Amino acid sequence: MLVRDIMTRPVVAIAPDMPIDDVIVLMGQRQLRHFPIAEDGRVVGIVSDRDLRTVGSAHPKSRPGVKGSDPVRDLMSAPVWTAHPLDPIDEVASLLRAHAIGAMPVVEEEEMVGIVTSSDCLDALIRMTGVGGAATRIEVELPNRPGELAGLLTLIAEHGADVASVLTTRSELDVAGFVLRVGTIDGRGLALTLREAGYEVTWPPERTTEEA
Amino acid sequence: MTAGGSDTAAAAPARFLYHPDLTRWSLSREHPFRPDRLQALYELLTAWELMPDGAVLAPSPLRAHELERVHDPEYVRAVRRLSRGDRVDDPRRFGLGTADTPVFPGMHEAVREVCAASVTAIEAILSGSTRRAASFAGGLHHAQRDRASGFCIYDDASLAIHRALDRGWRVAYLDLDAHHGDGVQQAFYEEGRVLTVSLHESGRYLFPGTGHGYELGTGAGRGWSVNVPLEPFTEDAAWLEAFDAVVPRALAAFRPDLIVLQAGADGHRDDPLADLCLTVRGMHDAYRRVVELADRHCDGRLLILGGGGYRPYAVAARAWAQAWAALIGRDTPERVPDAWRERWTEPDGTTPPAAALDDPDRYPPQPRRALIHGHVRAVARRALARLEPIWAETAVGATPTQEGTA
């Protein structure tokens, strides 16, 4: 998935000379946490709800001397980290985390076309993990070498079940972990088949039959 | 609806839906879903003398095109064609011909009969001839509008519930299967006259992957889809605590005219498909609570359906005997007859236990018991925190449906 698939648009952008008090009112009305600040269609800065809420307070991140009647230009962060519509979302997510910021305006050919926030990334992640119809979760650990996943998927296909999604949980030098969502109610039956073929299935757990 | 003129109904026997045709079909040899567990149940109840005269009721045929009330005509057509050996292009798009739901001759007729049993059972209650009925062949809660899913081809529970809606009744559907009751929830997700409550192993770990706490229903149905997703290895005490926290409150808010219980028995710790750790003792306690709740909220009207249960005799038949005993207000003997145990050995060759209820010391406690119990408690609390404000809104100015129930 790319930024263009998850970004919010149109963007509510404000002019740099808008008084901070007005921006605070607007933020409350629109239920937004970030406002890009634009001049002639170009992004020149960004303010967050924390920037606004700490104006005139003793908060350590408060900008000294800035009052509510001042223009937002005096408060905004600049320059701004921006994303491109064709950026992969994992890259944007890692940038948001690396710079400890909550949103990035999306800019194409110097024009702002949207905004992408950490909430958008989280929503995308939820969609990625929850895709597909009725399915059972199977977790496996495979030797980290070419063809291992292909072999596993072939065996599942021969078992007669559809694979709805495949996620990687970890990838190390010699082992890779995968979570598959497979279209069968009998996950244990499938797990047994996979174990018999030599695969290391970590969910569902192996069960020792108890004596009656 | 009103509670008058019910002395004869109270005295009328509970009805047990049974016919050999309900027990003789199977999805395939070696398939985990074993309809003959209904026969095992019937024989156990008979041996225990818990099947009063006049209790057994055979299914009446469905109405013409009744299956199409909850299923796409194209899907029903495909099942019918495959059932008689005709070709269907790409049956897998209907969920058929898969590992879970193989194509087998007579599949349409077999599962239609299951639907007829559940519909006949609810009609017995709707007509006022009894207040309590059981259709343990039913409870096929995964069947979707346009496809088979999770061993389920047609959704008998939703068909039965529609019959009650036709009469203007409000129906509380309570699903205790280890798997989320996704088909029934979906069928009534926007319906304000049907409450669905499902306690199940979390979709994070188990098929079908749905039933999260944030699935609340939409439109008129908002607040009337209730989900309590449980940790794997949840045991009786935590399960019953979650039940007690959520179910009575949901019923009190909704005010049903009838409860439909899906009594899937695959939450038992010996069940090979799921990971809950219930015992027949805990299930017994839950069934008794459901009967009491039916007495409190809807004049005792209760329909019990079957569902999952993949230790078909040792667990499902033994658990459902407890459900039936609760329904008719009796207790079972403490021991399971030896002749029955020898006759109904499990597919894997083990003999069902001799205790009617599982002995408490048969199973050691789960190692993470306290942690799991705490999580289950938090899940129940979160469910109520989401739902109670919605119920409070709905209760203002809500009028229960009164017409058409005479």
**Distance from first to last alpha carbon of chain A:** 51 Å
| CATH T-level fold name of chain B | Arginase, Chain A
Q: Radius of gyration of chain B from the CA trace?
A: 20 Å
CATH architecture of chain B: 3-Layer(aba) Sandwich
Mean pLDDT of chain A: 89
Domains of chain B, number: 1
Count of extended strands of chain B: 8
Query: Pairing-aware structural class of the strands and helices of chain A?
Result: alpha+beta
Q: Span between N and C termini of chain B?
A: 8 Å
The CATH topology of the largest domain in chain A comes to CBS-domain
Strand order of the largest sheet of chain B: 2-1-3-8-7-4-5-6
**Spatial strand sequence of the major β-sheet of chain A:** 6-7-5-8
Total helices of chain A: the number is: 7
The CATH superfamily of the largest domain in chain A is known as CBS-domain
User: What is the architecture of the largest domain in chain A at the second tier of CATH?
Assistant: Roll
